[in-house]
Amino acid sequence: MDLTKGEVEVEALRQDVLKMFLGGTGLGVYWLYEHLSPGLEPLSKDNVIVLASGPLTGSRVYGTSRASLISKSPLTSTIFDSTCGGLFPTYFKRSGFDLAVICGASQEPVYIHIHDDGAEMLPARDLWGLRVTETIQELRKRHGYKCSAIAIGPAGENLVRLASVMGDGGHAFGRGGLGAVLGSKKLKAVVASGSKSVEEADSERLEELLDNMRTRITWSPYLSRTLKDFGTDALLTVINDWGLLPTMNFRTGFFERAYRLSAEELAKLVVGRRGCYNCPIACKRVTKTDKVVCEGPEYESIANLGCMLGVDDLRDVAEMNHLCNELGLDTISMGVTLACFLELVERGEIKLDLKWGEADKLKELILETAYRRGYGKELAEGSLRLAKRYGEENLSMSVKGLEIPAYDPRGAFGMALSYATSYRGACHLRSWTIAFEVIGVPNLVDRFSSFEKPSLVKYTQDLAAVYDSLVMCKHFAVEFDEEPLSAMLSAVTGVEFSKEELLMVGERVWALTRLFNLREGLSAKDDALPERLLTPLAVGPTAGRAPPLGQMLREYYAVRGWSPDGVPTEECLVRLGLKGVVRPWRGA
Amino acid sequence: MERGIDREVYEVLREYASRIARRGYVTAHGGNLSIRSGSYMWITRHACSLENLRPEDVVKVPVDKPSSYDIIASTETPVHREIYRRTGNLVVMHAHPPFSVALSFFIDELVPIDSEGYHVLRCVPVVEGRPGSPTLANEVASKLMGYWAVIVRGHGVFASSKFIDHTYQILCMVEHSAKLLYLKSLYEGALGLKAKVPREF
């Protein structure tokens, strides 16, 4: 879809490319690597945003109402993918399209409607300026209730680098400022109303596999009890006790008043539970305060808008979360950027009457960020640009410009490597070693050991890329590895995949994203953590511990088959079948 | 481990966890045990190794309702909970002793043939259910209202009492009785010996 020309073209995908990259993130990464010119400005009309479903999206396999959004990030300038659940991915898949490549930029605000017969661009002048829920409700009025939409809020319109793309029900393509990419294209929303059925090559085989999946879900305490009973906030108290809960810009990993933010406290505000389409777990919570009824907040939002800012009242956190969702802001980056801002205030770099925990003032700053007013102009740039502006780069708790999620790597060394090597910057969803290091699913490993962590991170990264290419919710990854996934993929598509072939898709994604970022000028020196997180704390549950990042990185590159300076070798590219299939990254 | 754990609770759990492991009643990361303390219980965490229990392998959860700490607590936490809710017991041990588990495939109750086992245990019922499920919790807890121990078919043994050493004793006796039954059948089958029932039992 060319927004500049207002034209839509439809083309078939190459089977060999599908086999190599599956769909979702994999396909989007391939498309961007092949078609995007190196060095382009992410908020220019030349940037491209790819909306991709996967081979399992909308199928009967649980946890697959999910899609990926892939672009070059205005926050990190790296390749960036983000996935989102809800209803939208299924309606998109049912339109019969696997991939929507959106390029150019419109002069006037528009939205895209994708349906069974194709796609069209429609005027959105009257929607511009609306918050997320208002926008989606208005689109539903226009297109009926058998549709779903994703939309940006004022933050995306104002090119805030922390802007998310929101779906219905609080679901989000949260990170990396992809909302600003839509905003730069004057694209307010995408509506999907597909009604075709999703084909299954072998329904009988799939039914057998689903039987097994149902049993395993029921048997999994994490999926069928914890997530169901408490949602993702179940993590908070344990993470805090173990000294992993980032507090006040990662100055400690322990928040004294974390019990006030626990899942048990959240339950007092909960008025309902929700889930994505065709999900038996329904991990999302609907909460109510005196002021709002809202989705969530999830663990990450509670940690980053709560402990990170010294806020200990869940009602405040829920309201801040709601504000972010409605304005279209990433709660993780917003929280960490505000924490950086608070530390700058505390150091006297910024003259403002503001202290940790002052929720009302923080809410005002969130509003200012979305509209780029007052200090919001600086906050809208993210923590790294903010900190650099004041000559305090070390106060930005970010990797490659992406703010670090709510697991202090001093308490789980796998997360240190995971954050440092993620192609999109600090991310917990590209390798959630917390499952192994804290929860103990599927196995428990020593969180303070660096032994085997490079292999663990590589494996979980590859598996995560498979999940994002299928596209499937990663909560299921605690129970379903490449073996059941390959069987279900084969049953749905009719193309046989071994578990080894499937993991190789993940490895391919990691190699190609690496090549993309190298082409953009990144290097091994960007696989780094802020100095603060490599410095042991004096007190607390992780006192005296710091991850040996350099040592783990060296082993990680070797495990991946990359050179000691983090470049995929010729041999690696040949092994992955990328040599001669994708453009060389040098001189492209 | 939740902050503020009584060091003594950990030391006691570590000691008995280690004994259970040394006896070969659990595999590398199997088994679990708990101690009740008022409306809470201290229970070993999911996937920990009883051979080498660390302080952070012990978690405190409420007895009367699920908790967010269940995310790391043993898979069998609901079974422990139900036992405490329905009995006055203060300790629960769960292990996978091989003779008891093997025997459970063939019987519905274990009646010890040795005098000590018989006098203490009388009978050990065999129940069924998947680990950590409400069905298993109900089956095990209801049986433990009248017995010291139960065997879950193809899985393991739950033993429970008011005292930790007593509970450990019960667990050992169940396995010892199962082993004796096996040995007796071996003598009868392999050596063709005829069993003599003790005149006084």
Word description of this protein:
The complex is a heterodimer of chains A (588) and B (201). With 588 residues, chain A is of the alpha+beta class. Helices cover 39% and strands 11% of the residues of chain A. A four-stranded antiparallel beta sheet of chain A has the order 3-2-1-4, sandwiched between helices. In chain A, a hairpin with a 4-residue loop joins strand 12 (284-288) and strand 13 (293-295). The longest helix of chain A has 21 residues, at 499-519. Chain A is globular and about 60 Å long. The mean pLDDT of chain A is 96. Chain B has a single domain, classed as 3-Layer(aba) Sandwich (L-fuculose-1-phosphate Aldolase). With 201 residues, chain B is of the alpha+beta class. Chain B is elongated and about 55 Å long. Chain B has helices at residues 7-22, 77-86, 98-104, 115-121, 134-144, 164-191; strands spanning 32-37, 40-44, 58-62, 91-95, 109-110, 124-127, 149-152, 156-161. An eight-stranded mixed beta sheet of chain B has the order 3-2-1-4-8-7-6-5, with helices on both faces. The chains are: A alpha+beta (588), B alpha+beta (201). Chains A and B meet through helix 8 and helix 9 of A and loops of B.
Which features does this protein show?
heterodimer, A: 588 residues, alpha+beta, Aldehyde Ferredoxin Oxidoreductase,  A, domain 1, Aldehyde Ferredoxin Oxidoreductase Protein, subunit A, domain 2, Aldehyde Ferredoxin Oxidoreductase Protein, subunit A, domain 3, 3 domains, four-stranded antiparallel β-sheet, four-stranded mixed β-sheet, 39% helix, globular, B: 201 residues, L-fuculose-1-phosphate Aldolase, eight-stranded mixed β-sheet, 18% strand
